[in-house]
Amino acid sequence: MSQIHVKTIINGDASEFLCAADETLLDVLRDRLDLTGSKEGCASGDCGACSVTMDGRLVCACLVLGAEADGTEITTIEGMATGENLHPLQQAFLDHAALQCGICTPGFLVAAKSLLERNPDPTEEETRYWLAGNLCRCTGYDKIVRAVLDAAKIMRETA
Amino acid sequence: MPKDEFTPRTFSVVGTRPLRPDGIDKVTGRARYGADISAPGMLTGMVLRSPHAHARICSIDTSVAAAMPGVKAVITRADFPVHPENNGTADVLDNCMADKKALYDGHAVAAVAASSRRAALDALATIKVVYEVLPHVLDVDEAMKLDAPILHKGRKQEGVPADVSDNVLTRTEYGHGDPEIGFQMADLVIERQFKTAATHQGYIEPHSCLATLGSDGQGDLWVCTQGHYMARNTCAEILGLDSGCLRVTPSEIGGGFGGKTTVFLEPTALLLSQKSGRPVKMTMTREEVFRASGPTASTSIDIKIGMTKDGTITAAKGDYRYQNGAYEAMNGTLGAMTGFAPYDLDHVNTVGWDVVTNRPKAAAYRAPGAPMAAFAVESVIDELAYKLGLDPIEVRLKNAAREGTKSAYGPTYPAIGLEATLKAAKSHPHWSAPLGENQGRGVACGFWFNFGGDTCVSLMVNPDGTVSLSEGNPDIGGSRAAMSMMAAEELGIPMERVRTIIADTAALGQNEVTDGSRVTFAVGLATIKAARHAIQIMVERAAMTWGIDPEAVEWVDGAAQPAGPNAGKHPPMSLAEIAAIASNTGGPISGHFEVNAEGAGVSFGTHIADTEVDPETGAVKIIRYTVFQDAGKAVHPSFVEGQLQGGAVQGIGWALNEEYIYGKDGTLQNAGFLDYRIPVASDLPMIDTAILEIPNPGHPYGVRGVGETGIVPPLAAVANSVSRAAGVRMTSLPMSPPKVLAALKKM
């Protein structure tokens, strides 16, 4: 099978790759570009562990073909911190002990960032519904929701 | 290990909430989990699985696959070099790769290693397996019948009666007194049958490993596991290797909950690597995780309890029938041991049955066997309290096990925290909060044994006064932090000066898997003892420097100092000062401790659940939830809360949604997260927690494991809540909307 030449911007950097027509964006990120922060929990769009944004839209990288990334701008968990400075959401997850095993954490952070970009002051209910596409089996979501609400508050105060 | 390890003390590090040292890696995506690694020349390994629930494997033809481009190795069971003598290991091998029969839908029958995933998939599609499909059995009560399809012949153990089938591998019995006498003394006796569905641990990270094995028998394995020593020992035994030649390095682990306490892919990956001469990476798909890893038992349980009008339990009987999937496991035994463990009973008898069926072999799942038993027992206690007009917490307090109680499974309890959790629940605002229409409140208790086991810790004092700690248990939820905290507490230095790493199998002696809620207890104990060992050496070095007897030196606040006026006047020598001159006082300083840790300290919890039942749809919503649990001593309270919250929510999923659904042909119908629905954020309220601290006499700081007990009460707490909200007793899990609706309509 001949491969497709794809040009994208990933976490602000121009990136080119070849991929097969049936390769997902998640496969490309993990296996071709060494961006293993996005996780494969299900490969069916049910767990959200591979959450990334594509032109600002929150997507499951396992449901997007690598070829579809052509001409788009992708942001992954690897693009969230600025140098050594963590994003307020990342810091809030640490402060609130909002991770146990941590496998779902990248997806939650990407999804939560996407929420706060749209709604800087979400209610608990809005937060819970926005994050309903991200599965966490360790925490029962309590500390995750608290971390997101707290980060939102900090971001509003420092905006 | 003496039982009087605990001495009361004040803490400066333990009990605080520092940030976890592995945190930045985990919020930036840098942390490397099972599938996040690769090796030069690596191949992809994939497994062909049985589409039948029970079938004789007549022949397997791999010749086409082996000749395909990119395919570097193809194996079946015939390629495995040895037949393990140990029954348990032989079962693990048979579960990894079927021999003469496929015993469940998803059972591995062949595997390939190829240059790409696509090439591996294409190769699998060409393997021709001729099956003779056999009748199958999935339900425990059906499997026990004499005319049931039989999985294994001749595995019945002593004590299993003749009037049940060969699928019943063990029958165990516990108790004391005579329940028949006790039932005579009761004012009300209730007997009910309960059913629970099989559920899955639902860890978000699928099983994954990267294996390299040479023809000389030397190998390396990178794997996501709860126990890399277990992985090493099991793979070595299955493949006939010297365990010392196989180095196993654990990846970060993306959840386990008991499901990663055995091997599924690892022996296959090693063998494929040896055959191909290349590193082989294998990762399960989510579908494979559901079909072919280790879910829980499904159960059928009879409970009979007698109670007087004042709430005293006069007698209790339980018959716990658990199917454990295709191979031997002991969930039924554990159910029989744990169900009545929270109560002080004069007359109690329990029987546990462990039965095989054509399902994937059950692995441990957080307090394995106990949640289903607690569901049944706590439901009957709730119904008795309801019908006698008694407060369900008062009834439990009246019968609660205390220090000195002879437990239903035998041992007599030392200091335990059940009563404390019940009293805390009773006085919590949740218990007296008003309820709305169609809402109900349920309460339930739970017990877990907790475990210690083989443990090794090494603690190195570095020349700059920092400390490196090596432990041999994967960090599944903050244990690096907990170990650094305990070492810092003991050494008298800031926690940030102690970095804990998870060492590979070549770096430390044998460590039991991360199970039994053992790590904070046992590895913590070994950490404290290793720190004390290092302190003893540092005290000797200071004494040598000062020219006095080591007996005349004590360790206070991170420094050696003369003990009393007779020791002479010497300014204290800090850990960093002693470390800096170690080379001149005898060489590098390290402490270590190796132990089979006993005295884990049993654990109890009480949960309160409020639910609202929609009378039109049967849907149940959790309105409010509070967990009360004894932690002995909470080393890092945030992580303890997290364990209690996570356990409660897994239990809520078990109670309301989760279920292995099989078709008539015995194949799994819902092998994905869309159809096997675990709780999501919008299903839940905040989960409140209250940590009680009744010190465990068997740990220097009083620590008890907290990981498992949290999943024991919720099945019953939610069921009791729904039963009260709906006005009808729910006896079958999950309480899915159709089931609740049907119960409402029958009223």
Rounded to an integer in angstroms, the radius of gyration calculated over CA atoms of chain B is: 27 Å
- The domain tally of chain B reads 3
* CATH architecture level-2 label of the largest domain in chain B: 2-Layer Sandwich
Kindly report how far apart the N and C termini of chain B lie: 56 Å
Please, could you describe this protein's structure?
- The complex is a heterodimer of chains A (159) and B (747).
- Chain A is an alpha+beta fold.
- Chain A has two domains: 4-79, Ubiquitin-like (UB roll); 88-158, DNA polymerase, domain 1 (Orthogonal Bundle), CATH 1.10.150.
- Chain A is built from five helices and five strands.
- In chain A, strand 1 and strand 2 form a beta hairpin.
- In chain A, helix 2 (88-95) crosses helix 5 (142-158).
- The N and C termini of chain A lie far apart (50 Å).
- The mean pLDDT of chain A is 97.
- With 747 residues, chain B is α+β, with helices and mostly antiparallel strands.
- Chain B has three domains: 43-134 and 206-253 and 260-292, Aldehyde oxidase/xanthine dehydrogenase, a/b hammerhead (Aldehyde Oxidoreductase, domain 3, Alpha-Beta Complex); 298-450 and 601-746, Aldehyde Oxidoreductase, domain 4; 452-597, Aldehyde oxidase/xanthine dehydrogenase, molybdopterin binding domain (Aldehyde Oxidoreductase, domain 4).
- Chain B is built from 20 helices and 26 strands.
- In chain B, the strands form six sheets. Chain B has a seven-stranded mixed beta sheet with strand order 3-5-1-12-9-10-11, sandwiched between helices.
- In chain B, strand 20 and strand 21 (559-562) form a beta hairpin.
- In chain B, helix 11 runs parallel beside helix 19, helix 15 runs parallel beside helix 16 (519-546) and helix 18 crosses helix 19 (714-726).
- Chain B is globular.
- The model of chain B has no long low-confidence stretch (mean pLDDT 97).
